[in-house]
Write a structure and sequence with these properties.
alpha+beta, Phosphorylase Kinase, domain 1, Transferase(Phosphotransferase), domain 1, 2 domains, five-stranded antiparallel β-sheet, two-stranded antiparallel sheet, 11 helices, globular, Protein_kinase_ATP_BS, Plant_MAPKKK
């Protein structure tokens, strides 16, 4: 299996399960040990139908990947529990330092900009690799980026990931679009509007993840506390999540390039790797400070039902194509001052936690 250079899948009975170290909408994550070698690894397991679908999708996506920026999958095991129900377990490499969310919490909730640059560069390398292989992660956030002890990070949790070729082949067939999932506060506007999915959706989520690393809080959390209001604001307004006030000019411009509301104007992962915030290269003032790009205008006529927990299927807009963003030179994309970053106050009841949404029964 691709990507499994350092260990092999343990055979049934040759490994033992340890304590729970995480959980999600799919099931539980346990630390485990190979009894033959003593090596530690992680076991993700599920019994419920939605959990089985999620883990099977994750295993299918990961088995064809081999990158130092993607968590390695060692294999999977199919079995039955004590009740005779089907069960799946997937074996993955163990990243001892946990997620970026865990790390940020240990260091006061937010990370230094210099560290954010390092982590973001590696995340971009992982996204570039995925996109070159036709895959959209769909659920990028700090909890889904794992850190090794030497400072290297890897993307994980591919339960919502999609192969665009498969989605394009299934367009018009029941189940193609409504299976798209993610975590609403990190999701791109066009995804929440059910207009389509492509690599640019991951770039929006990357911008939200950078804000999360810099502030220690999810994007939009300071502005909107009600889930329905948040989805409406992300999907149907021209506003942006609040940018970190302490960020450098390069950092703010990087976020501008990620959080362009029109997906066709977002920079690609390859382009963002050359951005001065990541590369450290000097850049002309016209590239950073230019303001000749028109603002996007969102058409929200016929707005869909924005209930947060809705499982109602959406549909692809047949006029929208699944595209690869090919804009290689953009010298003047900038928000109109700070007004676009400031959010209206909305006094609504708070929600305790935001979770990954796995629609079409993928909760």
């Amino acid at each position: 299996m691709a990507g499994n250079h350092f260990c092999s899948c343990p055979l049934p009975g040759e490994w033992m399960k340890g304590k729970v170290i995480g959980s999600g909408s799919f099931g539980n994550v346990h630390i485990a040990m190979n009894k033959a070698t003593g090596a530690l690894f992680v076991v993700k397991s599920a019994v419920s139908c939605p959990g089985l679908q999620s883990l099977e999708n994750e295993a299918t996506i990961l088995e064809g990947l081999s990158s130092p920026f993607i968590v390695q999958c060692m294999g999977k095991e199919l079995s039955k529990d004590s009740n005779g129900d089907r069960k799946i377990s997937i074996f993955m490499e163990y990243m001892a330092s946990g997620s970026l969310s865990d790390v940020a919490e240990k260091f006061g909730g937010a990370l230094d900009e210099e560290v954010i640059r390092l982590y973001t560069r590696q995340i971009l390398c992982g996204l570039k690799y995925l996109h070159e292989n036709g895959i959209v992660h769909c659920d990028l956030k700090c909890k889904n980026v794992l850190l090794g002890s030497s400072g290297h990070v890897k993307l994980t949790d591919f339960g919502c990931a999609k192969k665009l070729k498969d989605m394009k082949n299934k367009r018009g067939l029941e189940g193609s679009w409504q299976s798209v999932g993610g975590t609403p506060l990190w999701m791109a506007p066009e995804v929440l509007r059910n207009e389509g999915l492509d690599y640019a959706s991951d770039i929006w989520s990357l911008g939200c993840t950078v804000i999360e690393m810099a502030t220690g809080r999810p994007p939009w959390s300071d502005e909107v506390s009600n889930p329905v209001a948040a989805i409406l604001k992300i999907a149907c307004s021209n506003q942006m999540p609040r940018f970190p006030s302490h960020f450098s000019r390069e950092g703010l411009d990087f976020l501008d390039k990620c959080l362009e509301r029109h997906p066709k104007w977002r920079w690609t992962a390859e382009e963002l790797l050359e951005h001065p915030f990541i590369s450290g290269k000097s850049v002309s003032n016209s590239r950073i400070d230019g303001s000749c790009s028109p603002s996007s205008i969102l058409d929200i006529s016929g707005m869909y039902d924005c209930d947060y927990d809705s499982d109602e299927p959406g549909s692809f807009n047949e006029d929208e194509s699944l595209h690869i963003n090919r804009f290689s030179t953009r010298h003047c994309i900038q928000r109109k001052g700070t007004d676009s970053r400031q959010q209206a106050e909305i006094d609504l009841e708070p929600l305790d936690n935001w979770i990954t949404v796995r629609s079409a029964g993928q909760f």
